[in-house]
Design a protein that fits this description.
The radius of gyration is 20 Å and the shape is elongated. The chain is of the alpha+beta class. The protein has helices at 6-18, 46-63, 84-89, and strands at 22-29, 33-39, 69-73, 94-99, 111-120, 127-132, 166-170, 174-179, 183-184, 188-189. The strands form 3 sheets. Strands 7-6-5-4-8 form a 5-stranded antiparallel β-sheet.
Length: 198
């Protein structure tokens, strides 16, 4: 919602949702660009973007909204997660999260990656549970600059891996979050967990 008044955001959201889509974000960028990002249960295609763009153009003319260019697009394979309902929709998906402040042990940092297990708590006190990916565990891989502690398995031997650490934090502590793209190199980019393809 960078630089967008709540009233304009609400107007755009009602219009987008009235057309059967979900509003992901609205941003004001340089050069008078107003970017509207939307999603749908079956993804977003060019026709969907054109439909919403036509409707918003008419709405902005009537409402006297100040902008020079309008861009309507899908969120892509690394869809941002902004609201509690976004997190609830993608429970089970792998996500990247940046917090306002580092977590206490076992993670001890602001940037996390893992599988979203649960969204719990009442309105205003929602909490998220995240199972960290193996290279994101306390021994750290990617972010600490060391190799992952998970070793390759030898043929014929079952190696018991330690359970992945689970962390919990308040939704209010989230600065930014995005889905980790689910890519299928045999068939291109897969729509992430029911989200949209670009």
């Amino acid at each position: 919602m960078a630089g967008v008044a709540d009233s304009l955001y609400g107007t755009i959201e009602r219009t987008v949702e009235g057309l059967g889509y979900e509003l992901v974000d609205v941003e004001r960028l340089g050069g008078g660009l107003l970017r509207v990002t939307l999603d749908g249960r079956n993804g977003i295609g060019l026709e969907d973007c054109e439909r919403v763009s036509r409707q918003l153009t008419h709405l902005f003319a009537v409402e006297g909204v100040d902008y020079q260019r309008l861009e309507v697009s899908s969120p892509g394979v690394d869809r941002p997660l902004k609201r509690v309902r976004d997190f609830a929709r993608f429970v089970g998906a792998e996500i990247n999260v940046q917090l306002h402040a580092p977590l206490a042990a076992p993670a001890g940092r602001k940037r996390l990656r893992g599988r979203l297990l649960e969204v719990a708590g009442g309105a205003g006190s929602e909490r998220l549970r995240l199972e960290l990916t193996p290279e994101e565990g306390p021994a750290g891989g990617r972010l600490s600059g060391r190799k992952s502690p998970v070793k390759a398995r030898k043929p014929g031997k079952d190696v018991a891996l330690p359970p992945a650490p689970v962390v919990e934090f308040a939704f209010a502590d989230v600065d930014k979050a995005r889905l980790v793209p689910a890519l299928d190199f045999r068939g291109g980019a897969a729509a992430p967990h029911g989200g949209s393809k670009e």
